[in-house]
Amino acid sequence: MSEQRVAPVAAFQPPYYAVVFTSLRTEGDAGYGETAERMGELVKDVPGFLGEDSARTPGGLAITVAYFRDLDGIEQWRTHTEHRAAKEYGRAHWYERYSLHIAKVEHSHGFERTPR
Question: Would the pLDDT of 70 be above 80?
């Protein structure tokens, strides 16, 4: 079985913001997968949401970077009712630890190989 290939979120015209969520999970799923999928769908409806990249290391470190056009979009997502409930449940059940960083992106560019 091969893994599905994914591509990084494209570069956007700065300035915009990156929300970097780095976490170490507890053992087991306890509904995490379904909730993560639901949050991934809900955030798409937040005005100013540009996309997200996510990866997990073999040692269990997970990094998700969500991109937003402005701080208002980040605030709308932070205070979204279902997202707040998921964060509260996550602190009680899913995470050993996590950190959150918000950064202003001042430069952005990308590369894509052209087919031969």
Answer: yes
